[in-house]
Structure formats: C-alpha cells, structure tokens
Amino acid sequence: MAQSNSRKYDLILLGATGYTGRLCAEHITKSLPTDLKWAVSGRSHERLAAIVQEVKSHNPDRLQPVVEATTLSLEDLRLLAQKTRLILNTVGPYYRYSSPVVQACAESGTHYLDVTGESPWVYEMIEKYDAIAKQNGAIIIPEIGLESSPSDLIAWSLATLLREKLSLNTKEVVASVHEMRSQPSGGSLATVLGLFEHYSSSEVTRSLAPWALSPIAGPKPSSQAPFSTRVFGVRQEPNLGTLTTAITAPPNVAIVERTWGLLGGPNSYGPNFQYHEYMRAKNWLAGVIIHFATSLALIALAIPPLRWILQYAAHSFYAPGQGASRQDADEEAFELRAVAEADEDSPNPRMAMAKFRYDGGIYYLTGIFLAEAAMVLLKDEELTTKLGGGLLTPAILGQPFIDRLRNAGIVIESRIMPG
Questions:
Q1: What are the tens digits of pLDDT across the range 132-186?
Q2: Rounded distance, CA 364 to CA 211, Å?
Q3: Sheet of 66-69: strands edge to edge?
Q4: What pairing do the DSSP bridges indicate for beta strands 333-342 and 170-181?
C-alpha cells in the first residue's frame, strides 16, 4: 500500500523511556524541525508523560510529542503503526520484544528504523518480512545505530569514491575501530547475554556465515588471510597499524555484505569485494591477548552455567534502562578508520582511506543515527520512491544520510591516497 501523508504523526519513538530512547527524544527535540508531528510510545503512560516534560525543557517553543501508550501485542502495534509514517524502535532485546513491531510496520506500509546488533534476529526478520515490506512500500532498516551505520557508510563511501574518481571497483575494505571510549548500557549487556539463550549456536552461526544476509551470493576471497591472522588474530595494515579481533565486527560485516547485494553486487562495489573489520591494538602481543580473550568470551556465552554467571555480574553493574551518566558520556568518543584497495591488475593497486569520528556520548550518537535517518525517509520522496520497500541497510540511504550526520557534528571523510 502507498504510505499516506495524512497519517496523524510523522514519526513515533517507541521505547522512549529507555536509556537510548530518552537520548533520541532529546536529539529530536533539539535538532529536528519544530513542526515535526511526533509521539513517544511505550507501556507506561506516566513514564512517557515524564519524558515529554523532560524534552520540553530542551526546546519549549517547538511542537511537543504526544503520548501514545501501547502494549507490545501485535493488535496494538498495528494500530500504532497505522497512525504514523515512521517508527523509531529502541525496544530491546529485539529478538524478545520487537518482531511484532517489524511485522506491524511491514503490513501497514510504515517505515521502520532500529538500533539492534542481533544478526540472528535480523536474519529472521529478512526471511519473514522482506517480501511483505516490499509489497506494502515499507522501508525497514535494522542496525542503523553504532551497529552498523559507521561500517556500512564507510564501506559505501570508499567504494563510491574509487568508482567515481578512478572508475575502479573495490577489491577489499579493511576497517579498524581506532578509538572506542564508552560504557555499555544495561540494555546492551542484557541483549548480548540473552541472545545465546534465545538462538541455538547453529542459528547464530548461520546468520553470521559469509554473505548470509546478502540477497545474492557473494564472492569468495581471492587469497587466504596470513598465517598470523588465522592463528593469532593479528593483522598488520600499513595505514592502520596493528589490528586484532573485534567482538563487534560480525554484525557489521554482515550488514556491509547485505548492502553489496542490495546495490547489485558485482555491479556496485565490484565482483571481488571483501570487507574485514578489526580493532586497533597497541602492539602484536596485546593483539594476541585481545584475540584469545574475545574467543574465550564467546565460548563462555555458549556455555549456560558460565553465561548465567556473566548475566548476574552484568546486572549488578547496569540494569536495563541504565547507562553512563551525562558527565561520563561527554567524555566518550568513537572513531572508525578504513582503507580500500582498488580492484586492478597492478603490483601497487591504488588505495583510498576514510574516517568516521564522533566525540560525545555513544548512545546519544545512536539517537542521532535514528533521528537523522528518519528525516531522510520523511523528506526525500525521490529516494523513498526509488527504494520502494523491504529490509534494507543504513548505506542504502547514501549521501543524504551522510550529509545529515555531518550537519549533526559527525566527521565522515574519505580521500584517494597518493602513490
């Protein structure tokens, strides 16, 4: 069905009383158009009313949000989705609470954005609702937060730069979390620990297999990773330094690979494209230690008694809905760097480099991603018509999304390297 602009709201923020939801509501209040018709939604009318008063203090002269209390039943969520053009969903764990939200949006032709990093759940949503969303013109974009917007946008920027400036495909993008200063929220910890309770090991493995989320089969690597990388998890990259295993990489890689497929695969980034993501290490030994510690942590998550101990410990630090204080969040920062190698028959293929950086609260950054992506979908009718609908990815929003993020204070830059 075609989405109607006569719907009551432009957007509804679902989960507005949670840690990420509150920060997203703050950014909407401070930065989005003052005539935006929006609502905050969740289960508690009283807590939602408190959020409305809280955000009003940031900008009392703008159109304030309406309270739309709801349960998470499919029937109520359908009614909610039919009132709005777009839903921003911060209700996690997504595998536990948000499948009916996606279903309601896909069936109602309502656009949808979330900030999950749960690849098995995303895999499940693609299988169940991609076709329905396409049929009804609903643009559904999961993982538009820290997982996986920076990775997806950096890969898109580099491939676009090589194609437009040098008329070359991209052979490989290597990304590295260069800096990450942040504290996890209670909701994020609960999600990671609970994911292995909900999905079997085989389901998790299937969703993270190479090109599992891509709508078309992806290429096999043209060469094997170096021995030190395969055994010790460490890679030396001249323009990035010493790199090691990043526990956050798998969902990001899966989304980048889906973008490759959605854009046409061989006709987009190139027929031999590969994306790899790591984190920066101080030296080789530190990289090895991080790699094996990460491997042991993943093994612990797969063993119920050890997982239960981790759940108890995590809950002692942060309960769901809690996170870093405003003072601590102001000291946070995130930087992703990446290099791309052009796909050309040369002993010295040309290279490009990119950087994504944000100084400030990481969960506030998540709110920025949600709100600014929403404005792309609400304002760019030409783009939404072209996209049609379906389960898409952050980079599908392309340059308009990047431009809005830059205007929000995020550094996103790319350049061709000399030589």
A1: 999 999 999 999 999 999 999 999 999 999 999 999 999 999 999 999 988 765 5
A2: 30
A3: 66-69, 38-42, 9-14, 84-89, 111-114, 139-141, 390-391
A4: antiparallel
Contact predicate 243/236, CB 8 Å = yes
User: Which strand (E) or helix (H) includes residue 133?
Assistant: helix 119-136
And the tokens for 368? Answer: 């920025």
Contact 158, 170 (CB under 8 A): yes
Tokens read off for 413 = 């830059």
**What gap in Å lies between CA 369 and CA 372, rounded to an integer?**
5
Q: What are phi and psi of 145, to 5 degrees?
A: -95, -145
> What does the alpha-carbon distance between residue 39 and residue 138 come to, in Å, rounded to a whole number?
19
User: For residue 182, which amino acid is it?
Assistant: S
User: How many CA atoms, within 13 angstroms, populate the side-chain half-sphere of residue 280?
Assistant: 16
What's the chain's length in residues?
Answer: 419
Cβ distance 351 to 340 under 8 Å? yes
Interacting residues of 62 by C-beta distance below 8 A, sequence separation 6+: 29, 34, 35, 36
DSSP 48-82: HHHHHHHHHTT-TTSPPPEEEE--SSHHHHHHHHT
**Separation of alpha carbons 356 and 345, rounded Å:** 29
Percentage of residues in the chain having pLDDT higher than 90? 79
- Look up residue 42 and give its two tokens: 């969740």
Give the separation between CA 117 and CA 248, rounded to whole angstroms.
Answer: 9
**Residue 241, amino acid:** G
Q: Is 227 left (phi over 0), alpha (psi -120 to 50) or beta?
A: alpha
- Please report where in the chains the tokens 């292995």 appear, as a residue: 196
Residue among 58, 15, 16 at smallest CA distance from 34: 58
Predicted TM-score (pTM) of the model is 0.94
Name which of 85, 104, 103 is nearest 2 in CA terms: 85
Burial of 12 (0-12, 13-18, 19+ CB in 10 A): buried
Tokens of 3: 């989405």
Positive or negative torsion for Cα 241, 245, 248, 254: positive
Can you give 208-237 as a three-state secondary structure string? CCCCCCCCCCCCCCCCCCCHHHHHHCCEEE
Please check whether residue 233 is in contact with residue 367, taking contact to mean a CB–CB distance below 8 angstroms.
no
- Whether residue 184 is preceded by a cis peptide bond, meaning omega within 30 degrees of 0, is no
Task: Give residues with Cβ within 8 angstroms of 89, minimum separation 6.
Answer: 14, 15, 98, 101, 112, 113, 114
pLDDT in tens, 44-74: 999 999 999 999 999 999 999 999 999 999 9
Q: Quote the CA–CA distance of 385 and 111 in Å, as a whole number.
A: 12
